[in-house]
C-alpha cells in the first residue's frame, strides 16, 4: 500500500484503485477532508498513509463490498454512532469495531459514556451531526464534542478499510493509525463477536 504515497494509483484491498486521500479530497466528506488536511499539518507522514478508493455507492455497506470485491471482512471496520443518556445529559460517541464484531453498546460503550442507557443515535441526527452520509460515517472528522472509541483489535489490522464520510468511496489506512487520530480512546474489548450463523 505504501507504494502509492507519492501520488500514483495502487491496487490494494478488494482490487480497488487506491490513491493518497489528500490528493482526492473530492472523494471525501468535507469534515473528513478538513480533518485529514489538519492532521497532515500536525502529523504529516501519518496522514500521507491514508488512501481512498472510489466505489459504487451501492457497495457502501460492508457486506455488499465484501461480496463484490472478495476483500476479507476481517480488514473492514465500521463506525457506529451511539448516544448515551443519564438524566438530562446526553453524550455521543463514534465507535469503531471490525466488521466481524459488533460494538458492545449496552456494556462498555454505555459505561464509557457514563450513561444509564445507550443506543444507536437516530439516523437523521447522526448524518446532520457528523456532516457525513449514512453508511459512510468514519471516525476521521467527527465533531470535537463527540467521543471516539476504537476497539484495540482494529489496531492489529495491517490495512483497515473504513468509510470516507460519503457512500461513493472508502478509505484505507494502517489499523494502528486509527488509534492515533486526535481525540481517540482505544478500548479493549469494544467489539464483541457476532452470533454464529451455524
Automatic annotation (TrEMBL):
Superkingdom classification of source: Bacteria
Domain YbaK/aminoacyl-tRNA synthetase-associated: 57-176
InterPro entries: YbaK/aa-tRNA-synt-asso_dom_sf, YbaK/aa-tRNA-synth-assoc-dom
Any one Gene Ontology molecular-function term assigned to this protein's record: aminoacyl-tRNA deacylase activity
UniProt xrefs under Pfam families: tRNA_edit
Protein name: Prolyl-tRNA editing enzyme YbaK/EbsC (Cys-tRNA(Pro) deacylase)
Species name: Quadrisphaera granulorum
Source lineage: Bacteria, Bacillati, Actinomycetota, Actinomycetes, Kineosporiales
